[in-house]
Write a structure and sequence with these properties.
By secondary structure, the chain is α/β, with parallel strands linked by helices. It has helices at about 15-30, 40-55, 60-75, 80-90, 100-110, 125-135, 145, 155-165, 180-190, 225-235; strands at about 5-10, 115-120, 140, 175, 195, 220. The protein is globular, with a radius of gyration of 18 Å.
Length: about 240
Amino acid sequence: MRFRAVTFDCYGTLIDWDNGIGLWLENWASFKGIVAATPDLLEEFAGYQRAEQARTPFQPYRTVLGNALRAMGSRAGISVSDGEADEFAATAGTWPPFDDTLGALEQLKSQGRLLGVISNVDNDLFAGTQALLGHPFDIVITAQDVQSYKPATPHFDALRERLAEQGIGEDAILHVARSKFHDIKTANERGWANVWVNRRHGLPGRGVGLPSDAEPMWIVASMAECVALLAEVDPA
């Protein structure tokens, strides 16, 4: 078995970020009288979130979420209260998994592969997500742990070190992610095998996310397809 470790981005890849965060933004915008389609709200939010993540010194993800919401409100001429910002940030640990996520993780785990996750989130928020996923991960590295946000390298550096402690080298890592900008580009730079999960495949409208010209090693449309791909290229 070549890929002893399969590692993931979480939100957007395993967790349905579009629906989880999109539903809240849609309801909030409607209540505030903002007329905008949900994909447009998500696109706008992604830009503000990235701007907040790029600020120094490091800000917790709760702060990033709240400030991004405040920026959206400000652009629309609307004030966002601390209570609204806190309520919004707290939802991160409740965003739902995709329908194929739990089964795929269970299958990969049963094959004896180590499962890891690197995520731009706080530890307490990820704890909620872990519970939703059934605590499948052997290694968890958050933005709070490394005081940095992907696509910067600290997540990847920490993951490499944790895997090396278990005798797993970089040639045995398969990194799986939806975001070319946050994950695939840096994985390519590291020489890591990688899979881009194109969750928008076959769906109408443009995809939400930040632009990147990174070319993945493999492309799938779901976690179920990712499991099938591994069965073909690296059977356990």
